[in-house]
Amino acid sequence: MKTTPLHEKHIELGAKMVNFNDWDMPIQYTSIIEEHMAVRKKAGMFDVSHMGDLIVSGNDAAEFINKVQTANIKKLSVGRMKYTHLLNDEGKIIDDLIIGKLIEKEFLWVVNAGTTDIVLNWLNKHVEGDVKIKNASDEYGCIAIQGPLAQNTLQKLTDYDLSQIKFFGFDHVELGEKCIVSRTGYTGEDGFEIISKPETTVDLWDELLDAGKEYGIKPAGLGARDTLRLEKGYLLSGQDFHNNRTPLEASAEWVVHWDHEFIGKNILVEQKKRGDYDRFVGMELLERGIPRTGHQISKNGKKIGTVTSGTMSPVLKKGIALGYVSYKYNEIGMDLTINIRDEEVKGKIVKVPFL
Amino acid sequence: MEEIPSNLRYSESHEWVKVENNKARIGITHHAQKELTDIVYVELPKIGEGVKKDGEIGVVESIKAVSEIYSPISGKVVEVNNKLEESPELINKHPYADGWLTVFENINKKEIEELMSAEEYTAFLEEIKAH
Questions:
Q1: Chain B residue with minimal CA distance to A227?
Q2: What are the residues of chain B with a beta carbon less than 8 Å away from any beta carbon of chain A?
Q3: What is the CATH number of domain A7-49+140-231?
Q4: How confident is the model over A278-305, as pLDDT tens digits?
Q5: Cβ-Cβ contacts under 8 Å for B96 (sequence gap 6 or more)
């Protein structure tokens, strides 16, 4: 199994480790609920070094990037990032990712750990013109510091005024070395992701834990990362889609910029015209129970969809789920049932984010 | 150091049994709740239900995992801990007290004797940890 630069830190902190896409990663340190609530109320820090970092550069880089994903990257300024989807020829999502414009003609791609090689192969297969694609994943570590007190914590380590970094913006900030600090995350809270050399990542981990002590900061594992993103209705690559759903089905039309050409666009145009596609929705249970991946969703005894992600919401203290339902049933407030161990448990479609 | 009361009997699937006159109270061990952590949902057997040794008597769910509970002994369900519906975390807090799951009657003394003593269970846990 692969390990991140912070592997020893996790062991020292007594984390429970799991195999996540062939990475030995902390699922929790003390308690998923405690870690979850620390991020919602104070601050938490995550090791996200397993995520892939690709550098795409060259005179034709912008042209090429525009062709292989849904956002019109030509509108992106240096120092800005964009959440986007990479589609296959059938318009299905291969991966969701963030693209940042480092300098003119040079872009950073942050992709999911489990799909880094798949994305790399896909890009190499479609590359044309003056474009260089480099897998820099091993050269960087990354810490996500998230929560209402994330900025206060990180600010203690630098003279740089962090309030200058806007949502989905980034800058090169001196933190032992010049690190890429972006105001991004996967928790729905304010916070930053800090990309740095592996040695710096290790130093930063300790410094942040120390700086955040007065605010009640906690290291948080993949378990809390999952419940936090679920409460906000964010998609999880490999779970809520895996080459089987389009951005329209994933209720993420906002990532699609219709003003440029990209692989899979013709399928999306056609699908949008027809309108008869499944929709990704949020559901909450009205009775006791916890929806899980694969549970069947029904309306009046008839199957209308499947749960792709579910949990007990630590904040709402009830079962919540994300999943796909037939377009005919895509209506906020609609009653449905979710089959949990052969019992039809009552629930309804609700707006996402759940909170 | 695991908490293992000396007056209970233990199964290899980490349930405990406490004999109370002709009845037996059943729960999951400190080790089991610690492995699960953050228990957020519990399903209990129905009162009056007859249960065989190793039969499923419920489900505990943590945030991440669903775990079936297998009965360490045979018997008939006469009580269930309804407090766990509202407060499943009682199992994490007090696995041997307020976090009990169910009480059986029509119990078989021989089956209970075959379960592990506190010393045997302690050794069993040591062995698991060594692997």
A1: B63
A2: 37-38, 40-41, 43, 59, 61-64, 66, 85
A3: 3.30.1360.120
A4: 999 999 999 999 999 999 999 999 999 9
A5: B3, B5, B8, B16, B27, B29, B30
